[in-house]
């Protein structure tokens, strides 16, 4: 969860929006006790982490490209 909160700092719609959605997702699944379902939820969380990292890397790449390779 802490990794998701850390990644949420740079979320395009804002940290508060991200934090609210994250808390809602965790609260929705707090009653889950089936180990298989928990593993699926953890795998989904890891997928979200990777997608956020890719989003931030792409944004950084586009910024650097714009900065150094102007089409003027």
TrEMBL record:
Coiled-coil intervals: none
Family: Belongs to the complex I LYR family.
Primary gene name: Etfrf1_1
Record InterPro entries: Complex1_LYR_ETFRF1_LYRM5, ETFRF1
CDD domains: Complex1_LYR_ETFRF1_LYRM5
UniProt-listed Pfam families: Complex1_LYR_2
One CC-aspect GO term: mitochondrion
Protein's UniProt name: Electron transfer flavoprotein regulatory factor 1
Superkingdom per UniProt: Eukaryota
Any single biological process term in GO: respiratory electron transport chain
């Amino acid at each position: 969860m802490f990794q998701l909160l850390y990644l949420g700092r740079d979320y395009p719609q804002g940290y508060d929006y991200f934090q609210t959605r994250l808390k809602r997702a965790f609260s929705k699944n707090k009653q889950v006790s089936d180990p298989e379902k928990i593993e699926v939820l953890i795998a989904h969380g890891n997928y979200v982490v990777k997608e956020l990292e890719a989003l931030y890397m792409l944004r950084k790449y586009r910024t650097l490209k714009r900065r150094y390779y102007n089409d003027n």
